[in-house]
Specification:
By secondary structure, this protein is α/β, with parallel strands linked by helices. The chain has 19 helices and 21 strands. The chain has four domains: 11-31 and 487-537, Alpha-Beta Plaits (2-Layer Sandwich), CATH 3.30.70; 35-114 and 437-479, Fumarate Reductase Iron-sulfur Protein, Chain B, domain 2; 126-217 and 356-419, FAD/NAD(P)-binding domain, CATH 3.50.50; 222-354, FAD/NAD(P)-binding domain (3-Layer(bba) Sandwich), CATH 3.50.50. The protein has helices at 11-16, 35-39, 46-53, 58-65, 72-78, 82-86, 98-112, 134-145, 162-165, 174-186, 200-205, 236-244, 262-273, 294-302, 400-419, 455-458, 471-479, 492-496, 523-527, and strands at 25-29, 126-130, 149-153, 190-192, 210-213, 219-220, 233-235, 254-258, 278-282, 306-308, 311-316, 320-328, 334-344, 347-350, 354-355, 369-370, 373-374, 387-389, 502-504, 511-513, 533-537. α13 links the parallel β8 and β9.
Length: 539
């Protein structure tokens, strides 16, 4: 018997009656912006490669990851993971260990010997990259994938920039760094090391079609400190650089480091591993104002590094020094107190930040420098056509991840400039918020804490402190992702639709909505755990 059109008591009756004409709105599947993607300075599609990794498709996940970032094994160790700070899961239990999974994929790729696909075409155009740090290497990688010939020139004898000469081995083992750089060499990128560029303009006259400057900021900032004739005052970058080159600096038994950034912590922890009995950090502000990563501070304290907050160096002698205690005024700024303390010290290491060496600009005035950084436009181009710049020598956060992002962005605009085309502007989306999700579908699942080398063992050598995840824990961590704003084929919409309007297209293909049967009730949208569906008007 044919039932009235409004009755949908069974599959048969639902399919027998087209109910779509009742609608004023209908659901649509959308791809929204996950907050982790938005927060990544390297521009990784974090949610996507996590989703791919969830079923054990590690090579596919890795290849998706390296579309944006050629250094997953490195970044899984040194990135301070702002993606995790932004993760919506933080409000449920704990953030997804994105950085841990990235390291696992990077290490797994090295173990399996996966290679980067060569470019499918050669453009015949050549780009010079000045500087073999993270920005320069990233730009070279992306430009080579686009089919351009790329030459990297660097004044040092080993590539890596601050990844090699600023980050100690206990954070970044050199075999990991070398292996990921070697993949870039295998793509056909030419490395010219021990080669200093004295004038960037000459490069364009050599036959290069464009130049990317990425020399970093490797000149240590100085400050005047009254000192005795035999006082030993060093700078942090030089100490780390010399140590990397096998020239162990003579620091003495008691070492004081002046500064509050990550470099200050790195050089203090390095001094302890080189045999210093005591390493003290002096910083003029409070801990909450220190630019150093909080995890790095915690690890330093665990290793016996002493930190004198609200203190400033006033005098350095032969075997001791004087510091003055500070106090915060009513605006939160440190002010001298007139109260002094004497510390035993064989050496004072300055870690007060870095500046850019602009000597490669030559005597020309067509390249603008403002407030100690290179001026570039939205396309990363300087005021000289064909010369681009990025990394620490331009305005922005001075982190490895940010520099890698600069290199990728510069490569995109260099390619467009070489081909005389315009880059389509990126449509900015608003990130999915926690309240947009149906979190009751997710059970509490705290993140996996990475194993760390015991503090008592760390200070005797440069063994890696933080360990990685094994396959089972990496899979668990990847599966904690809530896929904010993107369908992960949970079948909720398929199961709750009262009119059988949602059709499964197969694994990895998602769903389709048959509007002949959808009456626009919106149950599928309200029950989507990931906020991957929205209602749109039919009017």
């Amino acid at each position: 018997m044919q039932k009235p059109y409004a009755i949908t008591l069974s599959v048969g009756s639902s399919l027998a009656n087209h109910t779509g004409s009742w609608r004023v709105e209908h659901p649509e599947y959308v791809h929204q912006l996950p907050p982790c993607n938005q927060a990544c300075p390297a521009g990784e599609n974090v949610q996507n490669w996590l989703y791919i990794a969830e079923d054990g498709s590690y090579e596919q996940a890795w290849r998706e990851l390296i579309k944006e970032n050629p250094f997953p094994a490195v970044m899984g160790r040194v990135c301070y993971h702002p993606c995790q700070t932004a993760c919506n899961r933080t409000f449920l239990d704990e953030a997804v260990g994105i950085n841990s999974v990235e390291r696992f994929l990077g290490d797994h790729a090295l173990e399996k010997g996966w290679k980067i696909d060569p470019p499918t075409l050669e453009t015949g155009l050549a780009v010079l990259v000045i500087g073999a740090g993270p920005a320069g290497l990233s730009a070279a990688y992306h430009l080579r994938r686009m089919g351009h010939q790329v030459v990297i020139r660097d004044a040092t004898h080993s590539p890596g920039g601050m990844m090699r000469y600023g980050i100690p081995k206990y954070r970044l083992p050199r075999e990991i760094l070398d292996a990921e750089i070697n993949r870039i060499k295998e793509m056909g990128v030419i490395f010219q090391l021990n080669t200093r560029v004295d004038d960037v303009h000459d490069a364009l006259e050599e036959g290069f079609d464009a130049v990317f400057m990425a020399i970093g900021a490797q000149l240590s900032k100085r400050t005047y400190i009254p000192a005795g004739e035999s006082a030993r005052i060093l700078d942090a970058i030089q100490v780390l650089h010399h140590f990397e080159d096998g020239q162990n600096p003579l620091l003495g038994r008691k070492v004081v480091v002046y500064g509050g950034g990550n470099t200050a912590l790195d050089v203090a922890r390095t001094a302890k591993r080189l045999g210093a009995e005591e390493a003290i950090i002096v910083y003029r502000r409070t801990r909450d104002k220190a630019p150093a990563n909080d995890q790095e501070i915690e690890e330093a304290l665990e290793e016996g590094i002493l930190i004198k907050w609200l203190s400033t160096v006033k005098y350095m002698g032969e075997d001791d020094m004087m510091i003055e205690k500070m106090e915060l005024d009513d605006k939160g700024f440190p002010q001298p107190t007139g109260e002094f303390e004497t510390l035993e010290a064989d050496s004072l290491i300055l870690a007060l930040g870095q500046e850019v060496d602009f000597s490669l600009l030559g005597n020309n005035v067509d390249l603008d420098v403002k407030s100690g950084v290179m001026e570039v436009d939205a396309n990363m181009m300087t005021t000289h056509p064909g010369i681009f710049a990025g990394g620490d020598m331009v305005d922005g956060d001075r982190t490895v991840t940010t520099s890698i992002g600069h290199g990728k962005k510069a490569a995109k605009y260099i390619d467009a400039w070489l081909r005389s085309v315009q880059v389509e502007p990126k449509v900015e989306k608003e990130a999915v918020k926690f309240e947009d999700l149906n979190t009751w579908y997710y059970t509490d699942a705290p993140h996996v804490v990475r194993e760390r080398l015991a503090a008592s063992r760390r200070v005797y050598d440069f063994s890696e402190v933080v360990k990685g995840l094994d396959e089972s824990t990496a899979l668990y961590e990847a599966r904690r992702c809530m896929s904010c704003g993107n369908c992960f084929e949970c079948d909720n919409c398929f199961g709750v639709c009262p009119d059988n309007a949602i059709k499964k297209l197969g694994p990895g293909l998602g769903y389709a909505i048959d509007l002949d049967y959808c009456k626009g009730c919106g149950i599928c949208v309200s029950e989507c755990p990931a906020s991957a569906m929205v209602m749109v008007s039919d009017l």
